[in-house]
Design brief:
alpha+beta; 6 strands; three-stranded antiparallel beta sheet; 21% strand; 2 helices; 2 domains; 39% helix; single chain; 119 residues; elongated
């Protein structure tokens, strides 16, 4: 697994360690996202003052935003929402919204499956 070697709140190195040997590196923090020079504060890594987030975390946030947008669309009246996919133009508002909810759920499943494989 990938670990960041942290000293005085800064990542000094990034190395691969077998989890069974991690105890031999007391300043090692398991991370797939840390880079040399990052800050480590309260359990999170920061680069240039911004928290470094794993790609699947960013995608999950985007999926949540899209889900909220679809829920807003579902609350509108028939014909008010613009179709997000041109192929859905002949569908009713509710059918279009349902199609987008299903696409978002599929994307979320793929992201979570990919993240689980990396752990």
């Amino acid at each position: 697994m990938r670990y960041a070697i942290v000293k005085n709140g800064m990542v000094e190195n990034v190395i691969e360690i077998h989890p069974m040997n991690a105890a031999e590196f007391p300043t090692a923090v398991q991370s797939d996202i840390a880079s040399i020079g990052d800050e480590y504060i309260d359990g999170a890594f920061y680069r240039d003052g911004e928290e470094v987030k794993a790609p699947h975390t960013i995608l999950l946030a985007e999926i949540a935003d899209l889900t909220q947008a679809v829920e807003i669309l579902m609350g509108g009246r028939e014909g008010e929402a613009v179709a997000l996919d041109p192929r859905s133009a002949s569908l009713t508002h509710t059918e279009r919204a349902q199609m987008h909810v299903e696409a978002i759920q599929s994307a979320a499943t793929l992201v979570l499956d990919d993240a689980a494989k990396k752990q």
